[in-house]
Amino acid sequence: MQPKQPNYLVHHTTHSTPLGELTLVSRNGALVTVGLPGQHSTPPHPATTSKQDTDDPLNDVARQLDEYFNGQRTTFNVNTDLSATTEFRRTVLEHLLTIPYGHTQTYAQVAQAIGRPRAVRAVGSACATNPIPIIIPCHRVLRSDGTLGGYAGGLEMKRALLELEQ
Fold first, then answer.
1. Can you give the residue ranges of every domain in the chain?
2. Could you say which residues of the chain have pLDDT below 50?
3. How far apart are CA 106 and CA 6, in angstroms?
4. Disordered: where is this region (predicted)?
5. Which residues are catalytic?
6. Which CATH class is domain 87-165?
7. pTM of the model
8. Rounded distance between C-alpha atoms, residue 72 and residue 65, angstroms
9. CA atoms lying within 13 Å on the CB side of residue 77
């Protein structure tokens, strides 16, 4: 007897932005991945159905990204799925959504805000493995000395995103 396969629908597409091609992946209507240029994006699970069509929920994500890059959007209204992350990482990523457009926090401030003041490096790790960058704004988190720190898309991309928001 064959094991039961997961039953969910995956959509995926690439979307051109001023920073390069983003890979967008949704599962059952919720965004699960924004792959940055140069990143290896995980292909959809082989047990899923994958398609692109006019009902694709990623069309709205792409539109909101266009508005963001055109300076017409400061927050995203996107259904996300962080179920593949740990509880700690999910807590960090959910906090990042509260950092306003045009503002930054340090890794230490994020650790303090989530009630884990000694977990500064773990906060950095959670930011580095953010599966939905830009939408979940890990680019708004800096080192305590005010320098950029790291970014999965590279420091030039992080700098460009922060400059866009000024």
1. 10-70, 87-165
2. 43-47, 49, 53
3. 39
4. 35-57
5. 138
6. mainly alpha
7. 0.87
8. 10
9. 4
